[in-house]
């Protein structure tokens, strides 16, 4: 009976960990590695938010650019990733510190690898540590988002370049999404029902397109 209680406690702890991972907005606090000093995030003009989701199972790590991947959750505080994509826009308002720091975040994750995570809750704040197989860690703290912060989370687009489809995440629901070709012609218009929208582009002519949501430019999209 004692062993049964231990097993039930462990199972409940794992479920709690997974719930905290998915239901919390996270903010990167540092990157730790054996071969370099702790890397602290450089200043940014708006809050950077990382989110795990379960339907669909995704990771969206944001620090100006985004690390976006599919996630396979395990019951022992681990997960694996696949189809990782890192967006590659250049942050030009500093001496390269933001781009260098994001390079550490992007390089931390590899398709097919397993990652262990631990979450601690001290009542006022949660902390998350994700570790990989080469003794590197990314540290996070829970992020409290104001309305202004929520508005500053930018939509992300992947893959880009693309051949058959693009996925747009972090959208406001019921937005008017427009895809415009380089001549200014509207080629697609969609009203999304969730924060994530998959757009079929396989029948479009290869070239450069511009994606807008509610009249605001999101990103240039390259159709191969």
Molecular structure report:
By secondary structure, the protein is of the alpha+beta class. Helices cover 18% and strands 45% of the residues. The chain has three helices and 16 strands. It has a nine-stranded antiparallel beta sheet. β4 and β5 form a beta hairpin. The longest helix has 22 residues, at 2-23. It is globular. The protein starts with a helix and ends with a strand.
- The percentage helix is 10-25%
According to DSSP, the number of beta strands is 16
Which structural category fits the helices and strands?
alpha+beta
Helix count, DSSP H or I runs of 4 or more residues: 3
Shape: globular
What is the first-to-last residue Cα distance?
61 Å
Placed side by side, the strands forming the largest sheet appear as: 2-1-9-8-7-6-5-4-3
Compressed to H and E, one letter per element, the order equals HEEEEEEHEEEHEEEEEEE
Radius of gyration: 19 Å
Low-pLDDT stretches are 2-16
The largest sheet, given as strand count, sense and whether it forms a barrel, is: 9 strands, antiparallel
Beta content: 35-45%
Task: Give the rounded overall mean pLDDT.
Answer: 83
Give the arrangement of secondary structure elements.
Blueprint (H helix, E strand, L loop, with lengths): L1 H22 L2 E8 L2 E4 L11 E4 L2 E7 L1 E9 L4 E9 L10 H12 L5 E8 L4 E6 L5 E6 L4 H6 L3 E3 L6 E5 L6 E6 L4 E6 L5 E4 L6 E7 L2 E8 L1
Antiparallel strand pairs: 1-2, 1-9, 3-4, 4-5, 5-6, 6-7, 7-8, 8-9, 10-11, 11-14, 12-13, 12-15, 15-16
């Amino acid at each position: 009976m004692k062993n049964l209680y231990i097993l039930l406690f462990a199972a409940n702890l794992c479920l709690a960990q997974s719930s905290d991972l998915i239901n919390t907005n996270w903010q990167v606090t540092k990157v730790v590695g054996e071969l370099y000093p702790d890397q602290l995030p450089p200043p940014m003009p708006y809050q950077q938010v990382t989110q795990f989701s379960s339907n669909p199972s995704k990771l969206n790590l944001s620090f100006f650019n985004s690390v976006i991947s599919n996630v396979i959750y395990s019951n022992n505080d681990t997960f694996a990733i696949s189809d990782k994509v890192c967006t590659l826009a250049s942050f030009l308002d500093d001496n390269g510190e933001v781009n260098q720091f994001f390079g550490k975040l992007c390089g931390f994750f590899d398709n097919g690898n397993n990652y262990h995570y631990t979450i601690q809750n001290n009542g006022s704040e949660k902390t998350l540590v994700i570790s990989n197989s080469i003794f590197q860690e990314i540290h996070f703290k829970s992020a409290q988002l104001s309305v202004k912060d929520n508005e500053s989370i930018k939509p992300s687009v992947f893959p880009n370049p693309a051949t058959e489809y693009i996925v747009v995440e972090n959208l406001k629901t019921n937005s008017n999404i427009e895809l415009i070709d380089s001549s200014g012609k509207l080629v697609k218009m969609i009203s999304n029902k969730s924060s994530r929208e998959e757009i079929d582009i396989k029948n479009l002519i290869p070239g450069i397109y511009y994606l807008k949501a509610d009249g605001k430019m999101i990103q240039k999209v390259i159709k191969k």
